[in-house]
User: Which sequence fits this backbone?
DNA sequence: CTGTATCCTTTTGGATACTG
DNA sequence: CAGTATCCAAAAGGATACAG
């Protein structure tokens, strides 16, 4: 993804991706724009934290600190940023109750919940095949010294 | 992922992840190690090119240059590196025919093909909902100036 | 509690030259 | 053709201080 520091550099140009400069001798637009779509979505879902947040919010709405506690290694800054991106993409909602101290609830949207489905498929694949991958890695690494 | 430059820094320590320093007051091992597994697999599949390579090889085996031509923006270096990582994880095989000039064929393994399934689910989700995301982004951005 | 801003390190990845 | 190595720019992300 572009969007260097979405939480920080707010007034910058949003929604800006690396459109390949319409290179001539390559694949066609149909294919390459579909590739962009896939990369685009995968970039959102594939970054370090988005999936884990989506997954937590798929169960029930949660507030900021609750999420931070339940996600283990996530930093304050990255949680904010991840939530902002997910909100921007219409995958979660943010509801702020003007109390004191402030309370903010995050929840998955319909879109976010629909994303959770294929994502959970991937999660299941990961659990099922993780050992195979680890094994393959070890074998690969020893044969290379 | 760790593995700074897998194609380059070969003799370094492989298979090394950021094990959280067994922090006391947080989630339990069961949860946090499962989270690592998910992040781990997602890191492989979620980087800039792996998925696209997996997807191409899911259709039929291909050789290096063929892949490079069909993937559009990928650089020589990143294709090598991505293939090396996928090979290491047991997701693709590399078969080199000692001809001159050399010919190398890459193919998805059984494991790689099984990964393609949930991945294609995600790809389908991406195609279906990409417009929603784009729309949400635009709405979000205009309400922020 | 929630969020923003700053600083700084690590990682990612492109360009490019060179090898068998 | 396939692969490796070097160099360098950009991006990701953690720590931390601070504000409402």
Assistant:
């Amino acid at each position: 993804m572009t969007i260097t520091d979405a939480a920080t550099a707010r007034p910058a140009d949003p929604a800006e991706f690396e459109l390949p400069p319409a290179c001539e001798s390559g694949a066609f637009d149909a294919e390459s724009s579909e590739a962009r779509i896939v990369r685009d979505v995968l970039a959102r879902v594939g970054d370090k934290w988005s999936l884990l947040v989506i997954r937590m919010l798929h169960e029930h709405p949660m507030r900021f600190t609750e999420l931070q506690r339940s996600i283990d290694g996530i930093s304050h800054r990255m949680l904010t940023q991840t939530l902002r991106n997910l909100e921007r993409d219409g995958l979660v909602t943010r509801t702020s109750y003007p109390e004191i101290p402030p309370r903010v609830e995050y929840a998955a949207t319909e879109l976010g919940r629909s994303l959770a489905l294929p994502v959970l498929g991937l999660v299941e694949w990961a659990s099922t095949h993780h050992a195979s991958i680890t094994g393959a890695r070890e074998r690969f690494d020893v044969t290379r010294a």
User: Anything to note?
Assistant: Chain A touches chain B through 65 residues (CB under 8 Å). Chain A has one domain: 30-144.
